Amino acid sequence: MSNTIVANDLRKRYGDVNAVDGVSLTVEAGEFFGILGPNGAGKTTTLEIIEGLRQADAGEISVFGQSPWPRNPALLPRMGVQLQASAFFERLTAREQLRTFGSLYGVPGRKADEMLEVVGLSDKADTQVEKLSGGQAQRLSIACALVHEPELVFLDEPTAALDPQARRNLWDVLRAINTDGRTVVLTTHYMDEAEVLCDRVAIMDHGRILRSGAPAALVRGLEAAARVSVASGVMNADEARTLPGADEVTDDEVSLTISTRDAPKVVAALAERGALEGVQIKGATLEDVFLDLTGREYRA
Q1: d(CA 87, CA 94)
Q2: How far apart are CA 199 and CA 216, in angstroms?
Q3: pLDDT digits (tens, 9 = 90+) for 87-127
Q4: Where are the alpha helices (DSSP H) in the chain?
Q5: Helix axis angle, 134-146 relative to 94-103, nearest 10°?
Q6: Which pTM was predicted?
Q7: Residue 145 DSSP SS3
Q8: Which of 22, 67, 120, 207 is the most buried (most CB within 10 A)?
């Protein structure tokens, strides 16, 4: 597969802050690529450099084999950008908004209208954007980024501040975008979102990429303990601590949870004692990898 994006040693500084400090990455054609990181990690600045919205202080960036900076008119029709905060024209309906964005790329009105169906907003076509819910406005923002059928789509925290149902519905839209053959680059704070959607992710902090790879591979590489839980009361905590393979044991009077690096041995021991009621086994997740790399301290 060919590389759609190649970034090498990108750097961007604001005063004493290294917003982007030597970022190198590649994104293959047709890939769903995620950039993860806490607030202030440099995700948005990195994305803006790749999009050609901001000039890097140093480093090289290539999109479809061309430099996006200075603003490259040849690249603009091939890219779709959904920013963290999207601004719409006041008092226009969803259909009018989308047709206006489409007209900038010479997209016929009827073709633009079809995008409303793609993002599930056909029934809101005549609704003014001010009256759309948060999730509906986000879907309209994505529709505006897709109206000219770009090959490469950038999504900067597209599900931020959405309720769980709206997030899940938007995931379906994003999967469809990628399945249709488009390359997608996503920034997000939600680890479950990245695990579900992304082929590969890069975890950033303090302007640097700390680790990258397929989510499942990053989780396996952590070698974190698994958690085996059974219903509280089937065994007391002291007895659980004597089980072969048990490391730590907690009991919150709902579940007895055993932390272990040998889950099969623990489960076998529980089975011998007839203590498998409500058994659940949970391994490490991408969130564990994220916290292991970036720490657990609060970020403003």
Answers
A1: 13
A2: 9
A3: 898 899 999 999 999 999 999 999 899 999 888 899 999 99
A4: 43-51, 94-103, 109-118, 134-146, 164-179, 191-197, 215-222, 237-241, 263-272, 286-294
A5: 20
A6: 0.86
A7: helix
A8: 207
Strand partners of residue 12: 20
- The string of pLDDT tens digits covering residues 56-80 is 999 999 999 999 999 999 999 999 9
What is the DSSP pairing of strand 79-82 with strand 152-156?
parallel
- ∠ CA 81-83-86, nearest 5°, is 110
Rg of the chain on CA atoms, in Å:
23
Query: Coil, strand, or helix at residue 47?
Result: helix
CB atoms within 10 A of CB 181: 9
Average pLDDT over residues 29-38: 95
Tell me which DSSP letter residue 57 carries: S
Mark 207-226 as b/e (b = at least 16 C-beta within 10 Å): bbbbbbeebeebbeebebbb
183, 175 Cβ separation under 8 angstroms: no
pLDDT at 199: 97
Residue 120, classified by CB atoms within 10 Å of its CB into exposed (0-12), middle (13-18) or buried (19+), is middle
Report how far residue 79's alpha carbon sits from residue 26's, in angstroms, rounded to the nearest whole number. Answer: 16
Average pLDDT, the chain: 92
Residue 300's pLDDT is 52
| DSSP-based three-state secondary structure for 88 | coil
pLDDT tens digits for 168-200?
888 998 898 899 999 999 999 889 999 999 999
Sheet holding 3-14, edge to edge: 17-28, 3-14, 58-63
| Closest among 259, 261, 262, 257 to 278, alpha carbons compared | 257
The closest of 131, 122, 187 to 159, measured between CA atoms, is 187
d(CA 87, CA 137): 10
Domains of the chain: 3-220 (3.40.50.300), 225-283 (3.30.70.260)
